[in-house]
Amino acid sequence: MSHTAHIPSHRKPRRSASKLAVRAGVAGGVLSTLAMAGTASASPAEPKTESTLEMPVLDMDLAAEVSSAVTTAAENTRLAAVEGELTAQEESARTGAAAEAKQAKEEAQKAAEKKAKEEADRKAEAERATRTSERTSLKTTSGSGSGSATAPQGTGTVTAPATGSAAAIVNFARAQVGKAYVMGGTGPSSFDCSGLVQAAYRQAGISLPRMSQAQSSAGKSVSLSALQPGDILYWGSKGSAYHVAVYVGGGKFVGAQNPSTGIVERSLSYDKPTGAVRVL
Question: Which of 9, 140, 187, 264 is most buried per CB count within 10 Å?
Fold first, then answer.
């Protein structure tokens, strides 16, 4: 066997006639197409119709509108701020005026109370001087009458120019002069008006109602021109009186007047009563 029998040949194989024919046909078709394209390009071009898209035209000036809106908003904000400031100022003024009025009222009330106290003290001093003079006169002229009664200890202790139950009532009432007035007080250190009258009548063994309204209806009515020691004086309407006191004779009465004066003895002309009743 030859050593070169299986060595492949290095020669290029010949192309077959059929493949060459196919390639020739393809090339001819391409050239034909190019020729037709050139012919078409040589003919005049048809005009093309172009369409234009029209945009809508805006009628308003957006910049002006925005500027106006901004200006309006700014003005509204400014007006709101001014209104708020005015409201705060008005509230502050009202508060300050109310405080000043309250202070002025308190000062006026204090001044009135001070003046009333000074006047009450002056009258009380004058009344004490008068009572001292009257007690000296009564002790000199009354002696030790068999029908007289002596009041309990107190700043107004005197011997009343009356006898029996009336003397007991009068003496007790006068003995309480100078003591304090306390609303609802029934003794022994302080009384209100009806509490004093009730306690005075208790000295004569007589039980009276507690309130001034009922006390003003406790007995029979008597004229102010025919009063007797021990009669009950009242201010206001009978049956609905707002103040009562004890008539002690000599045109005077003893009563628990108010917190400023306490229990005092006064002339009927100083504070004329509305009417009187007699229980004895």
Answer: 264
Q: What is the pLDDT of residues 229-269, one digit of tens each?
A: 999 999 999 999 999 999 999 999 999 999 999 999 999 99
DSSP 161-215: S--HHHHHHHHHHHHTTTPEE-TT-BSSSEE-HHHHHHHHHHTTT----SSHHHH
Residues 163 and 132 in one domain: no
The CATH number of residue 211's host domain is: 3.90.1720.10
Which residue, of 82, 108, 142, is where some domain finishes? 142
Counting other chains too, the contacts that 159-163 makes at CB distance below 8 Å and 24 or more residues apart are 160/229, 160/248, 160/249, 161/229, 161/249, 161/250, 162/229, 162/230, 162/249
List pLDDT tens digits, range 219-238. 899 999 999 999 999 999 99
